[in-house]
Amino acid sequence: MRRWSSAKSSGGFSSGSARVVNADQGNEELDGSELSPDELLEIVAIRVSDASQYSACTSAVFGINEKDLQVQNKIEKQAATTTNLGNDEVQEGPSRSKSDKAKVPPSFGATTTTTKKKDDLKLALTGGQQGSADASVVLRPGSPGLPQPTLQREQPRQLHPCPGAYMERPGGNVERADALRISLVRPEDHQAMDTIPQIVSVAADSIPQAVPVAAELAQDEEATAMKLKELEAKTIELAAKTEEIERLKRDLQNLQDKIHVAEVAPVTAVPAIRVNSRGRCDVTNEVEAFVLDPTQEALVVTTTRSSAPAITTTNSHQVTANKLRFASLGLIGRSQEEQTLAACLHRATQTKTRELVLISGNSGVGKTALAMTLQAKTCKEKGLFISGKFDFCLRDDPYTGVASACRDLCSDLSLIDEFCDEIVEELGSELTILVKILPELQTIARNRNLPNRENNSVAERSLGHRQGLDESKKQIAYAFRRFFRAVCSFFPCLVLSLDDIQWADTASLDLLESLVTDDKISNLVVVGCFRANEVDETHLVSKMIRDLQANGNTDESFQITQVSIGNLELPNVRQMLIELLSMKDSDEVAALAQVCHKKTHGNAFFLVQFVSHLHEKGLLEYSWRLLNWTWDVPAITAKTGSTSNVVDLLKNKMEDLSNDSMVRLLPILACMGSSVEESTLAVVWDACCKDQGDHDAPLTTLLATAVEEGFLEKRGQSTYQFVHDKVQEASFSLVDSEHMVKLKSTVGKVLAEFDETAFEVHLFVAVNLLNEGCVPTSLRERIQLASLNLQAAKKAVVSSAFVSASKYALAGIELLPACKWGDEHYQLTLELFCLASEVQGYLGHVKSMEYHCDEVKAHARCLSDTFRVQNVLQDSLLNRHLNEEALALGLNLLKKLGHNFPKGQWSIKAATVAGILRTKVSISPKFPERIESLPSMTDPMKIQIMHTLDKCCTAAYLLMHDIFALLIFKNIQLTLRYGLSQYSPPAFSFLACILVGGLNDFNNASMVVSCAEKMMAKSRNTASRTAFVSSCLVLPWVDPSQNCLKKLVNGYYDGLFTGDTDSSMWCINVYIGIGLQSGRNLALLEADCAIYIKQMQEFERVKIAKFTQMYAQVIANLTQQYEFSATEEAWPLVGLDEHLYNDDDIMVDLGKEFQNRLYAILGEHAGGAELSIARGDRFLKGAPGCYHHIPDAFHRGLSLFAMARETKKRKYKRHAQKQRALIGAWTKKGNPNTIHYKHLLDAENAALKGRVSQAKEFYRKAVATSSRAGFVHDAALACERFAEYLLHDLEDKESAALQMREAIRFYAEWGATRKVDMVRNKYPDLLRPN
């Protein structure tokens, strides 16, 4: 605890100096004789909440110590006791009792202790009740030893709260000090007022005499009475000095003009939030001290933040009464909206969900202020609050709002090793992707080992085809999602507040949507503010809201809350003025509120600017005489008629500064965006001043003035930003349109002259300014600007901002001369046209894409110059499902490159046979060594051929075209001859598929697929696709199916890493399918389906999602209680409409396979047998190598054998033996996944033929091999079939019961709850305990 004392001064208030005295140093005390008249004059009316605080504050501010106040108070008490003014006994407080009345000490000569003096002082100040907030003491004539005029006793004047005295807290909060008020009281009787100075002067002269008399009175009541009479006589003598009244009034007025009235809060501890070394938010204490600055006659608030020794700062703020403190105002009229936001934060924190809060309203209504109310609440929860803003001038720069919110976070937390390790572990090599957007992440990645990346981004290595651009966008979004996953796991809650999302780019809105819908992110609140008048139904924000609402109907893990706010109503404006001016409600305030509301329509930002304008113009001013704010409503109405909107008001305010440099600076700032670094601005400012031949004011002075005037605010060490978009708009309006065009050109040219590193940061701003500035007249300038547009377009593509890239590319083309395809500008023209065709194709602008492609094909000087547009056209055809046209286009290009393919059906088949023979010859035991020794393919022409072959393979596979095998053989041939490319691994996987499906050559297929996996280590770009092809078409035939699961998971993450989301989603689809085939727990598979189907829909992989939905429905039929019909026409996948899949032959065949599977597992063998006969071999021949053929043959054979045993019909026997032969052939070739299938079908065959011992042996082998290999569902099915054979054919109930219980155990372990219930209901007697 600190105490305050004052140095002695004869100069009174203006010359006194204050200092701090620690408690262990004691207090410096003054004798009553040292009390000056000017000091006593200051103490006229005091209102305090605690007498001890009054003692400290008055000592610091007015140079009056504790002892002086005790003497003054005793004089007052003596006068109140002895002077009879025609009324009853004097009451010194509003609620003082008789027992608390001041008692007269026996003698003035008595001595008292310091504690007794303090108690007497508190008693006098509080009216007998210590701590009373309303206690008042008034020094008035009539004290002992002073002349006593004839005066009418009055109560102290009731003062309005003194405005303007506020304390700034850390974080920008300003709190009003209510504890101490010091002001002047003027009684209505002017004689009393005029007499006060003389009274005080005489009282001061009498103090040396009063002190010994007081001691005597403490011992003797008679002596006390005598001294009181003497004081009364002196008081009466003062009344005779009326000739000095006028002079005293003038002196008093001069003194009043010097007085600063301040409201001072007691010394308190204020909670502050900081991030500790572990990244958590801690609450520290901040102690505030108050010191009077005699040189400035103002109260200085000194704030000391006390926490960790390394984080200690001191700030000083001057507090005066005649200033409008807008920062102290809370939100007016937004209580309901605040509660809504608080509820969202509470839900996200407590239930670990995700919340999207959308705040809409017109500009200036207070959207950002409402969002910022969550900051304190988030810190209270020890969470993290970050905010960003999308800039209209940077709307072509992707992720600006999200990046601005993350920059401070990265900078602040980069020193926390635990947080950095968490980020690196979560992101891995994706961290290098985000570094391009968040350079601050470099500090996190420093000194940490990261996985190497082959290239900087997918877009950089994939320019020339739409899939690469799409992959780039998803790659960046996925990296951001993983970043936020790590951050959210580190804090109890994370609030991401983004302002002006109506200016957000498509990539940013897609990112926000993915963050909100990501199940792996918890306790996240995203707050988006946007202008309702700029967002219609066709706006991207509206589309995002509709998509999220549709998704939210089925997903309860996130909620959307929309908050719409409008202008303030008249009562709200009135309440704001009452709080701002610290006045009571009155008719005058109501009249001012009426004018303000009518002028501003209740727009919060306009209202603040309007009131500030009134104060600056002297229409609203503080009166030191009245200690109150004054205004004239008619004058306000007359003098503010021209300010029709806030932009005009701000423009007038800027122009009224009479500072030409400021008027020139603000438009420059506006051109450079809503925020700018001081170093960058300095270069531009110097260049602009030099260009105009004027440099009359330093930049630092201008920036400080702009901050002081409320135009700018400073963030961090050197960043300045406009306080509101309307201020930026007003800054633009300072310059007419003609000069603004010239200014943009000037600023753009200055930025373009920066060095390469600095210019890269300001590339979009510079190119936008140059495009909007003066049109270049010379050819050299036009070509330079076209080159800058090409550079900006490439950067936009890398950042997945394809709309911006299209705009820059088209702008660059417009700048090209008529002879653009000439020798001098050919390369620039080719680059612009190729890039324009790529982004136009990605955006779906087919006609524009085809125009630019045709231009390139018409003017290209060589075939290689057309490669990029050929790829664009082929990708466009594939994405529009024009597979035949895509295949024809690719074959035509391959023909031009010297690679012809046969056209006739027989020619293709003959060439295919020849290719198979050549390939089998080339595959020798040394084939893997040969592959490992192959170099990388470097010839661009050969790489283009491989790329075209790869696209043609995709089209041919989708068409089931016979030329598919020839394309694969050509790819293998070129790889063996010219080296490995990124397209080689998928080709080798397809070759292994041909060996398995077409030739049943499992050994060589295993060797080839191993080579493909080794190639993946050299080229990760196609790793996901290779994993999908290998695991779906090859590995289930040569390896245990459980081994495929890990490879598929790796392929899934490889696809997300490289942006190949199509292959990534196929990998997870096959992962679920093989997991179902391998006996993985159904509950886990059901959870996987729910997660990944949603992700497939997010990536717009609708077809893959439909395939996966079929797995989910199979699982649902095995775990949930559906009514099931065994009729032939029934669709066993209950809840799934078969007609949805009729448009795809593969999906129809797959649906039939699932039907047969469920028929076999659920025991409806009649339906399964009939369906099996009806299907034939269409699926087996239509999709060679597909892993679905293995379980399909088994389940079909099981149902056929069951019906053959039951009906003895030959058709069932014939088809059953055919399926058994297939399984046997695959087992003989070495398929490890068909051994238990063969044993069970052999057991069914033996049971059909009546071979009991052989049947029992095969049943036991089927159970043993199934359970040993992990196929628990197949073990359950083998036990069930064995039990039914024992029960129905051999009538061995005991053994049958044992096997049936084993079947139930295996089914339960698998998670097939419905099947368990079906078995128990079917055999209640058999399963009943003995």
UniProtKB/TrEMBL annotation:
Composition bias of kind Acidic residues appears in: 26-35
**Orc1-like AAA ATPase domain spans which residues?**
331-527
Pfam families for this protein: AAA_16
Which residue windows does the record flag with biased composition (Low complexity)? Answer: 1-17
Q: Which UniProt keywords apply?
A: Coiled coil
Which positions are tagged coiled coil?
A: 214-265
In this chain, the stretch annotated as Disordered covers 1-35, 80-115
Q: Is Kinase a UniProt keyword of this protein? A: no
Its domain of life? Eukaryota
Q: Does the keyword rRNA processing apply?
A: no
- UniProt-recorded name of the protein: Transcriptional regulator
Q: What is the lineage of its organism?
A: Eukaryota, Sar, Stramenopiles, Ochrophyta, Bacillariophyta
